[in-house]
Design brief:
The protein is an alpha+beta fold. The protein has 2 helices and 3 strands, in the order βαβαβ.
């Protein structure tokens, strides 16, 4: 199994990296881009036979406590 965690800034948080990329895209001629948000993508390989429910609970806890800053970031966890 593989877990995927996508971490993005909350909508209300200023994202200077995203704004820089958005400006660069506009200068390069890419029109119609109304927003860019820079985040993190984490992929975790899980051992064969791992209980999906237990893994989901543990990884949600890890994402909340270690991998993201819940004050300014949201995360989404997917397990395949």
């Amino acid at each position: 199994m593989k877990a995927k965690i996508i971490i993005t800034p909350k909508k209300a948080v200023l994202d200077p990296q995203g704004k820089t990329v958005q400006t660069a895209l506009a200068h390069m001629g890419y029109t119609g881009v109304t927003g860019v948000h820079i985040g993190k993508y984490i992929e975790i390989d899980l051992a064969p036979g791992t209980d999906q429910a237990a893994a989901s609970k543990a990884l949600n806890e890890a994402a909340h406590k270690l991998l993201s800053n819940p004050v300014i970031e949201d995360y989404k966890l997917e397990i395949e």
